[in-house]
Amino acid sequence: MLKLKNPSTKFSIIYESEDMSENKVYDYLLSEQEADLVLDNSDCFILSSETDIEEWEDMTGIYDKESFDNCSEDFSMEKYFEFIEE
To answer: Domain residues of the chain, as ranges?
Structure first.
């Protein structure tokens, strides 16, 4: 299960829909206006520190430690997440 390393850390990551390794990380939450501008002008989606863990798992396809180890760096998640075996 994905788990935030520090739940008080705020961040947003904009992912290209076709290739999640193409992403841009912000160490703050995007405002609603910023997010709307990004979403209106590109084929992408945004995940943030306020996004439910289940949605992170569904969007990234990370459901086990091996997937996390293989993808977390490409998806710019290593700074914010760890994977906990249940």
So the answer is: 2-83
